[in-house]
Amino acid sequence: MRLPVLASAALALIAPVGAAETPWQEVAPGVAMRLISTGEITDGGETLVALELDMPDDTKTYWRVPGETGLPLDLDFTASTGIGSHRVLWPYPLREDKNGYLDYVYYGHTVLPLAIDVTDPAARLDVAITLGVCSDICIPAQARFALPIFDKKPDRPSALRIRQALAEVPLAWDGSGEPIGDVEMAGEQLAVEVAPDLLDSQSLIAATDSGETLFGAPQKVRKPD
Q1: Residue limits of the Thiol:disulfide interchange protein DsbD N-terminal domain (predicted)?
Q2: What are the structural domains, with CATH classification, of the chain?
Q3: pTM
Q4: Of the chain's two ends, which shows fewer C-beta atoms within 10 Å, N or C?
């Protein structure tokens, strides 16, 4: 059963200068999250942070396109200073087809990396977060975190957790040959030509930028002669 219950966490304590992680906040029974950071800014003016979720193994949150029953992640950086744009670097999700509904999810302990463009070395993140957390019920959990971007002593454990999550983020294709051929609508279905020796068709997720159009799991068919 899915019930719209709101869990709202109190504002996090302001993390001390030099800390590359915030305190944990409990956002639902048995579920906590915090913000972690590498504490470093690259020569190109980018830093990596991440939302770290400590969830039981039977509890999930959602990918960029949450699916039919999921709740999307919402990040509000308007109170931050010294930053420009941001990108969520989504690890590859689990495709879950349950009770006739299709969702894209992460179960258990989850790290969601973010790349932040930094415009001032004294930048400070102040972000309000809303995301869906589901076990027997689904909760739009809320929290707010504040964290300085730069750390005189970069946080190596946090950086390691972030880079481990980055290893699960799909990469742009840089191999020889083209794994994807023609893409066209066939009635109400999306037909994608795939080179089977280059790409596992079952790993494909078709999604629009807005996520408004939800495509089901891929079905492998032979192209007509």
Answers
A1: 43-146
A2: 7-166 (2.60.40.1230), 175-225 (no CATH)
A3: 0.81
A4: C
